[in-house]
Design brief:
116 residues; Cytochrome Bc1 Complex, Chain D, domain 2; 0% strand
């Protein structure tokens, strides 16, 4: 196969194809890349993703676009009305910070995904 590629495309093209094949083979699998539902890899992603997706799809979170105050209201409502386990204050701070930054009104996570 390499000989056919060399004959058809030349040495430079063949080396490029072989390099791309090597890079693809060493790249993480799609499942690893999408471990957090496509959320930005930043401090707080893990606790936020697993806290939210314990009860519902993270896609529901991603479409909200709420302010920090509204996210807090939603989390309080989930504890009171939906039997969500209350988060320790330090975890609540991290989750609220992550949600308001990446899934706030400006939808930063969506903008970052569009620029990939």
């Amino acid at each position: 196969m390499v000989r056919v590629l060399l004959q058809r495309f030349g040495v430079i093209a063949c080396m490029g194809l072989l390099g791309a094949a090597y890079a693809a083979s060493s790249a993480p699998a799609l499942a690893e890349e999408d471990e957090f539902g496509g959320s930005p890899r930043a401090p707080g992603v893990e606790i936020t993703y697993y806290t939210c997706s314990a009860c519902h799809s993270f896609k529901l979170v991603a479409q909200q676009g709420l302010t920090k105050a509204r996210w807090k209201d939603v989390l309080v409502w989930m504890v009171k009305e939906q039997e969500m386990e209350p988060l320790p204050p330090s975890d609540l701070t991290v989750v609220l910070g992550y949600l308001s930054k990446y899934y706030g009104p400006d939808r930063l996570a969506r903008k970052m995904a569009a620029n990939k």
